Amino acid sequence: MTKSDLSTRIAAVSPKASPAEARVLDWLARHRESALHASAARIAAKAGTSDATVIRTARKLGYEGLDALRTALAEDLRRDLTLTERMAGDVARATAGTPLGVATEALRASLDVIERLNAQEIARVARAINMARRVHVFGIGPSGFVAGYMAAQLVRLGIDARALIRTGLQFADDLVGIGNGDVVLALAYDRPYPEVRALFDQAEAESLFSVLVTSAGTRLPDTRARVTLRVPRGRAEGFGMHAGTLALLEGLLIAVSAADPERTASALDALNAARRAISGGSMEL
Description:
The protein is of the alpha/beta class. It has helices at residues 6-13, 19-30, 32-35, 40-47, 51-60, 66-79, 83-96, 99-115, 119-131, 143-156, 171-175, 194-205, 243-259, 261-279, and strands spanning 135-138, 161-164, 183-187, 209-214, 227-230.
């Protein structure tokens, strides 16, 4: 395996891992600080597997053993600033200039990247969304609110869509609603969270068209998306911002509308009619 950071290796290995190995990978991704000092036996106990599986998983990731894996964990942690450290850096830059300058600089960088995205890929995504039985927009944490916004806007355009925003065992209820003919649109960044892996497991099992919207860094949370769209989320050492992601998603909404303008017009007419029925007057969009 070529030299790469641990998170990238976990994302690459996860789709091919056995269930026991996947539990080890999930535990390592979620508990990197604890894993730094954990023995193979402790990791095995936490992941519900054996010492031998832990060692085998480390080797599958490309490390000679647990010591090499711990070294990679330490390097990953040094590279990943905490949310507090990221915000402190942006606050310091804002103090030196203007607070809005930090945000506008990040948004300009995002828009520059969005303008250079492959137009054929955007059209491909728009066609897939228009043809889908249902579109599942995934996002957890703050990205969940963005996923909810995107799903609501797709519904306004006449497309059956829902947001997948739950985590842990509750996410299983979301997974069982994903089926043949659907499209998965995932907002996910950097780390290979178990929910991301499970989502792409399901998409792969159903042979679904899948899209990953992620950051412009070198790491991917999963490598199996049919289309990957990268957009910066602020400075690499700064606080994660979502304005660029929103701009990209709204561009996708326009592309979806342009791909089937008649359905868009019909859906908006139906929405206006529903609003008039509620308000008793005109509320044209």
